[in-house]
Specification:
heterotrimer, A: 3 domains, 9-stranded mixed beta sheet, 16 helices, C: alpha/beta, Amidase signature (AS) enzymes, 8-stranded mixed beta sheet, 11 strands, about 15% strand, globular
């Protein structure tokens, strides 16, 4: 039987505020346990929540970026359940009236086609704390520093049909929230997390199969692996005559498997109701328009501009705009290089990205600034150095030995265009290799490359290759 | 509405309340009579009525995004039954 | 001295005929000497009180006293007091030392008041008789076999027994007005949002409101002026200036339109009670007020709607008491589930558990619409009734309670009967309106309360209406026999 995979994602993006969603405690990552959990975060008797202004702005900004409806009135509700990392015994979230509804986002598929994924909603809620399972004599330790950190939960429709599509969508959201400056996107620190709802159905069937929810998939690679594992498991189970149970499953990267979560075994009854400590959140058109003015150029717009104005290929533009910092780096480089967008793109996606990968760094940690890379590209363009020499200049730049000009000057790497000098070298090479001269002249033109190599070698790579070619041809003929 | 002891058990579990066997029937009786009282609401038709969640007809106020709290762990944990290395301890949680 | 009003004591302190230390010592002595009879205090804060009194005297000597400098008061043990045990009358919080002051406490401290101690109450303010307290029932000074009312029963008994000249309370369904009525006191529950709920331990967040219990309307005005006001820490606090509640106390009542809802005078009201209320209304008529007949057609549904909404909110508000970060924790829990269930099962009393379970049920899947949503719709109807009524009148009057104080144990076995003792007070909380109860006579030597309900933020008028009555009558000056 042919199976169709159906995937919907729930993405939790921690909003990059200074303070928590309902308290004035810091949201900074990595503090000593419970030193950033104030009385409100701990849910002590008598405390009350007040909403952080910035959280609302960020949610509206996101909504505008995905062309969604912004609710003029949204309501915070309590989701009631007991768990030690949930101090009040309820999570303040949004249920019936979320701040953002009905958005959409386009993703690129592997074959170059695009696909629009619908976003059901995005709502604001507070994060829970963390349970630490290291052994405290058989106990679990609870750190509530993260409790109350603002989250934007972004929920897609079940529009994705493969793990690859799911990853593409997740990457797109990841890129978008960073473009908007509303989330740092740090997946190691849990600032950007994803749950996947996965089901399968026979191809052609309209009714959705029973879904399972995969939790704890905190990297793009794991999302793909976990979904594929789960799809395999579901198909195998059904084909063996079994049925899928609707449940929450945990992805275990070490064991490369998904398994039911024990803590979520029972069907939850969250008893949502409007939080009586908070009043309805109201936004008007003026506010929405004011937030709209803060929208930066978004990846899709940037990509279109790179293609139209900088004559990049769609593929190059896609790669460069996938990450805001990379796009910014590229644009600064183009500016420093006085144009030459294609050359800049090649150098960034070629040498620079390879070197960054090799040293385990990301673009923000590059040893070479856009200004210096632009300087190098200028020297390539004006023939001061050849492409080959440029690669060694790049290495010196990476080792922070100065600007391209300084390096070229200090190391004497300037390209030689003096034809008298080049002719002198050619004469020497021909004198030293009479046999090859004879071969060339008798029609064996393949040896031409041998002469180019010898000349370049003798000039320590500095001779202008085009000139070398031309002069060699002239000399060898006569 | 008449609640049975097994329903009390379900509710008590949702609310995480230990209720003894003997108390279950007492609660079943109490809660059933409260529900009878509550169901007097059904005397009125509310089909077109907008629910009122809050007596105030006001929008939510917003606070500026500033870090106003300092570390008060020591003070706040003075009331804590079991704390070690700054962490609240609970019986082992299985995920 | 103990029979003096707060207004009089302020005068005495200002003119130095008495010092705050003398006053405070006297009240502390009286509490230590006689509170065993009433059980109105959970904690007496002797040391802190004396320290505050000494500081007050220094300020008074310098002549820079605030409005309440040196005045001893008692606070319901629902308000968090920094460094002092704050129990909400529950075993759950028997060991809880609040790490902060409630805004209300902070305001009284700033005004220079002296805290005598924390008063007894129904556990988590759930009750109408003060019998659900972990610290035992409070006795009514007017009849020690009788309940003082609840949930602010300790505050009521303390003021009635002259153990404090005034006390704070909270009112979710009548918890200030009903005990005020049963103990011959003046009690005011302000408009929802007028007094900050920060640090006031929540029972039902959309209904809870802090207020005061005193022996006169003037004293209530003095205390409310300190207590009321905007608080940025409470999202439901209203940012609106506070009136000077004493400014209009002496306004003439000529032309005042008093609405009498026929639903408040039906067969549920005891005959003798009814005649006392009618007498009070005659006093107002003689003072120039007009009577307007009004209707509150959905008021009979206020108790049913309340017993969905309040338990629903409380079931969620009380989830934080889980034995993890503070409060009672059971011995040797075998696992997490056991920790939760036994900590909560062992530390909450029966009434609290009943309400948590009713609320849990009303919110649970399949029942939400039939119970919680229905109750919210009924709440809308009740609120609309009042809006329509206030088109026709300035204040609404009626009894505070259907009967005088009942005997201890009389209703404690039957929750529904107990709940019905709040039939006249609950609608006000659902609508969020301000209301008072003032002494209006006695039936069989037990006090009767007249309830006065005002429009939103019309506390000033309520206090004026109450004060004028107290200029003509002396019910409020009566004290229980055998207390001095």
């Amino acid at each position: 039987m042919q199976w169709e995979v159906v995937i919907g994602l729930e993405i939790h993006a921690q909003l990059a505020t200074k303070s928590k969603i309902f308290s004035g405690a810091s949201t900074a990552y990595g503090a000593e346990p419970n030193t950033q959990a104030c009385a409100i975060d701990l849910g002590l008797p008598g405390v009350l929540p007040v909403l952080n202004k910035e959280v609302l702005r960020m949610a509206v900004l996101f909504g505008l970026a995905i062309n969604a409806d912004i609710s003029r009135q949204s309501v915070f509700a309590r989701k009631n359940y007991f768990y030690p990392d949930l101090p009040k015994g309820y999570q303040i979230s949004q249920m019936d009236l979320p701040i953002v509804k009905n958005g959409s986002l386009e993703i690129e598929l592997e074959d170059g086609q695009t696909k629009v994924i619908a976003l059901t909603r995005a709502h604001l809620e507070e994060d829970a704390g963390k349970s630490l399972h290291e052994d405290f004599a058989g106990m679990t330790g609870i750190d509530l520093n993260r409790a109350g950190t603002p989250l934007l939960e972004i929920v897609s429709e079940p529009d994705m049909r493969s793990a690859k599509e799911a990853v593409a969508f997740m990457k797109k959201i990841h890129s978008l929230v960073q473009y908007l400056g509303i989330c740092d996107g740090n997946m190691q620190e849990g600032s950007f997390r994803c749950d996947a709802n996965v089901s399968v159905r026979p191809k052609g069937q309209e009714k959705l199969g029973t879904r399972t929810e995969l939790k704890n998939i905190n990297s793009f690679r794991f999302v793909e692996k976990a979904i594929n594992l789960e799809v395999e498991r579901q198909i195998e189970l059904i084909e063996d005559g079994g049925t899928i149970t609707q449940e929450t499953r945990l992805y275990d990267a070490d064991r490369d498997e998904t398994r039911p979560m024990r803590s979520k075994e029972e069907a939850n009854d969250y008893r949502y109701f409007p939080d009586p400590d908070l009043l309805p959140v109201e936004v008007d058109d003026a506010y929405i328009e004011q937030v709209r003015t803060q929208l930066p150029e978004l990846p899709a717009e940037k990509k279109a501009r790179f293609i139209a104005e900088l004559a990049l290929s769609s593929q190059d533009a896609e790669m460069l705009t996938a990450q805001k910092e990379l796009a910014d780096f590229f644009e600064s480089t183009v500016e420093a290089a006085n144009g030459e967008a294609k050359l800049c793109a090649n150098w960034i996606m070629g040498e620079l990205v390879a070197t960054l990968n090799k040293s385990g760094k990301d673009i923000s940690q590059s040893n070479i600034s856009p200004e210096r890379l632009g300087g190098l590209i200028q020297r390539i363009k004006d023939n001061t150095i050849s492409g080959k020499i440029a690669k060694s200049v790049f290495e010196f730049l990476w080792n922070e030995e100065g600007t391209a000009d300084e390096i070229i000057e200090r190391k004497g790497l300037k390209q030689v265009t003096d034809s008298g000098f080049i002719e002198k070298i050619i004469a020497e090479v021909m004198t030293n290799n009479p046999e090859q001269v004879e071969q060339y002249r008798s029609g064996k033109e393949k040896v031409f490359g041998f002469f180019v190599g010898k000349v370049m070698q003798a000039s320590q790579g500095k001779a202008n290759p085009a000139q070398v070619n031309q002069l060699l041809k002239d000399k060898l003929k006569s | 509405m008449s609640l049975q002891p097994n329903e009390i058990e379900k509710i008590a579990h949702l609310a995480r309340l230990a209720i003894s066997e003997t108390d279950k029937s007492v609660y079943a009786e109490n809660l059933s009579s409260i529900l009878d009282l509550v169901e007097q609401m059904n005397a009125v038709n509310t089909a077109d009525i907008v629910p009122l969640a809050h007596p105030l007809n006001e929008p939510q106020r917003l606070r500026d995004d500033v870090t106003s709290e300092t570390d008060q762990r020591e003070l706040l944990q003075e009331n804590s039954p079991t704390v070690e290395k700054g962490l609240f301890l609970v019986p082992k949680v299985l995920e | 001295m103990f029979e003096k009003t707060i207004a009089e004591l302020i005068n005495d302190l200002t003119h130095k005929t008495v010092s705050s230390v003398e006053l405070t010592e006297a009240f502390l002595h009286r509490i230590n000497h006689s509170d065993a009879e009433y059980n109105s205090f959970i904690t007496v804060t002797t040391e802190q009180a004396m320290q505050q009194a000494r500081q007050a005297d220094q300020r008074l000597a310098r002549g820079d006293g605030e409005s309440l400098t040196g005045i001893p008061l008692a606070h319901k043990d629902i308000f968090c007091t920094k460094g002092i045990k704050t129990t909400c009358a529950s075993k759950m919080l028997d060991n809880f030392i609040a790490p902060y002051d409630a805004t209300v406490i902070e305001k009284f401290n700033q005004a220079g008041a002296v805290t005598l101690g924390k008063t007894n109450m129904d556990e988590f303010a759930m009750g109408s008789s003060n019998e659900t307290s972990f610290y035992g029932p409070v006795k009514n000074p007017w009849g020690k076999n009788h309940v003082p009312g609840g949930s602010s029963g300790g505050s009521a008994a303390a003021v009635a027994a002259l153990l404090a000249p005034g006390a704070t309370g909270t009112d979710t369904g009548g918890s200030i007005r009903q005990p005020a009525a049963l103990c011959n006191l003046t009690g005011i529950k302000p408009t929802y949002g007028r007094v900050s709920r920060w640090g006031m331990i929540a029972f039902a967040s959309s209904l809870d409101q802090g207020g005061v219990m005193t022996r006169t309307a003037e004293d209530a005005a003095i205390l409310l002026n300190v207590m009321a006001g905007f608080d940025s820490k409470d999202s439901t606090s209203i940012n609106q200036p506070v009136d000077d509640y004493r400014a209009n106390l002496n306004n003439d009542l000529t032309g005042l339109r008093i609405g009498l809802p026929k639903e408040f005078f039906d067969e549920k009201l005891d005959n003798q009670m009814a005649s006392k209320i009618q007498d009070a209304i005659k006093v107002y008529q003689q003072a120039g007020a007009e009577i307007v007949d009004i209707e509150l057609p959905h008021s009979a549904l206020s108790v049913p709607a309340y017993y969905v909404i309040a338990p629903a909110e409380c079931s969620s508000n009380l989830s934080r008491y889980d034995g993890v970060r503070f409060g009672y924790r059971c011995e040797n829990p075998i696992d997490l589930e056991d920790l939760y269930k036994r900590s909560r099962g062992e530390a909450f009393g029966a009434e609290v558990k009943r309400r948590i379970m009713i609320g849990t049920y009303a919110l649970s899947a399949g029942y939400y619409d039939a119970y919680y949503l229905k109750a919210q719709k009924v709440r809308q109807l009740i609120s609309n009734d009042f809006k329509a009524a206030f088109e026709k009148c300035d204040v609404i009057m009626g009894p505070t309670t259907p009967d005088t104080a009942f005997e201890l144990g009389e209703k404690s076995q039957d929750p529904v009967t107990m709940y019905l003792s709040d039939i006249y007070t609950i609608a006000v909380n659902l609508a969020g309106l301000p209301a008072m109860s003032i002494p209006a006579g006695f039936v069989n030597d037990m006090p009767v309360g007249l309830q006065i309900i005002g429009n939103y933020f019309d506390e000033s008028r309520l206090l004026n209406v109450a004060h004028q009555y107290q200029q003509i009558t002396d019910w409020h000056q009566q004290t229980p026999a055998g207390i001095c």
